[in-house]
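hiii, so i know i said id send this last week but things got crazy w the move. better late than never?? heres the sequnce for the chain we talked about at the cafe, plus the structure i predicted for it. fair warning i was half asleep when i ran it
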Amino acid sequence: MLETLVSGMGFAEPLPGDVVRDYLLNLKMDRPHLFVLEDLHQGWRYFTWCLKRQPRPCVSSYQSILSWRKLVRSLKEVMNMKKYLAFMSKKTKLKCLGVVALSLISSILASIWPVRLGELYTSISDGTIGNVAMGAVAIAVFGLMYLSAECITIVRRVMLDCIIATHESEVREFSIEKLLKMPVSYYSGCLSGEKTAQLNQGVAGFSQLIKIMCNDVFATVLTAACTLFQVFLNAPWIMAGIMFLYLAFTVVISAFQIRSQNGIREKVVNQKNSLDGQICQSISNLELIRGMDAEEYEKRRLVPSILNISRTEKKHHRYMGTFDCFKQLCKISFQVILLVASILLIADGRMSAGAVITVCLLFQQLVKPIDEVYRFMDETASSVVKAKTLMEVAASPSDEIFDIKSSHAEMTGDSIHLENVIITNPEKSKKLAWYEDVVIPCGKRIALQGANGCGKTSLVRSLNRYYPHTDGRITLFGRDQESYSQKELTEMIYYTPQVSFFIAGTIRDNLLYGIERERADDELIEALEKVHLVGSGHKDTVIRKDSKEALDFVISEKVEELSGGMKQRLSLARAFLRHPKMFIFDEITANLDEKATNYVLANIEEYAKKIGAGIVYISHDQKVVDRCDEIIALKNKLRTDVSVKVAA
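okay and structure toks below
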């Protein structure tokens, strides 16, 4: 169809398929009424092709639909419950077995009460029951069975929802811990928030899989089995055969329906994850957007992604509507066939009128879950796609730095020594810095200097293993870096980066962040006093004059309640609650005036001397450099070519 359309446009040579497709999609948005019949026509052509199992003439936008092998692979992945079960606690598994047991009980009751109703009708029609008193017991039994079946269904659903809620909290706790311990390279090349969005969808997808299996798959299979069994017992075998054929037809149509949209479903999930990442990026840059009056520009930048999702979902819904029409046609046709067969059997004396009521009710009992076959098959396929990220994260090893055990050897030195060390990016694909010999003594005030891009921050990041080193040796206080566990390493070196990290909460919460042991409020207040964030008698801006009020003061994630200088001082206040062997401060005076700088640094230096710790300043501020006992000028041997690739 595309070829026909393009040939009528008068182009000298054929256009690429993606160009034509984009043109048609844009035209469809502008003039949707021109494409309604075309969409229905394509839907019909695709359905007939599915039935014939022949290659279909199709437009290029439909060529990405997956083959039967991919559908079978998805179903195998669902049926391979081992990896999913391994992710569930024993308690959750036992509770799910209880839900399945309730499904069996409700299926049995749901298949019995139509039989009892048919028998009751037969007894009334042939005069066996002539009044209410005679039929009271039969009516009571029927009502009790009907009520029990419905109540058990409700209890089962509520019970499963509670199980899912508990399970989700367990999985989210595990996921958060796993994300925090993933290698830094895992987050490279993705937008802020994209991995979180994927993982949240993965948790939701996994929970949905449990719900589908316990509440839909088992319920449907058990209901179908119990219903067909009752039909075999209470009606001629031909009626059971008709129901079985209906069951087979519906499942086949649903399988075709799933197959046709499997690739589109995965595409939508990926598009939404990408959009979530873009939106998070926009929100994080809100100040820049406002400052440049770029709200409209940012919206226009996101609109193509939004429209792509909309187009993909609309195409999905159009196809689903086509298949749903055929399923309803199938259901009504088999209902008519059942009625015609009933009339013939009654006329032949092989079936009673009460049995007809029983068969019709049992058919409706079968139809109700079977109508949901596509829904839960579709949700299963969608949930597998979403849960894939969660399974990948669970199967991925944590960063190797967390596997390093401490040697517990004695620290025999008083310096940090880098010998012929090559520092790389987290992926180990690019060299960032190469230092032949750097010695940083402890117990002194050291200024670490060098030109922009010489790798000062990279050096510090290599000390706490945030950046790996592929060659050379790093020795910390007489011991090799690899002899320290990550916990030991972070306890010995306290690093304050250029950009401070805060959490939404009170000042107390932010001061105590990362500190395991209890700290009295007096210690926290003393730390705030050391950076002039509380009290009076000085001209620096404070959070609150009253110390207790300052600790309870609530800030947001971006700390918009405080000025730039106050944020910097709050970040530095954390240093007074630590006892490392080395403090490293990276450009910590950028937002402080001269008076505040002198006061804060004097207090930090006094505290470091008191606990016997050294201080390293990474700073371009000459006043800070002048305070130091020693200046180390870094010489990065890769300075002239910082993008050299690491040898394979």
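btw Residues 415-633 form a domain with the Rossmann fold fold (CATH 3.40.50.300). thought thatd interest u
miss u guys!!
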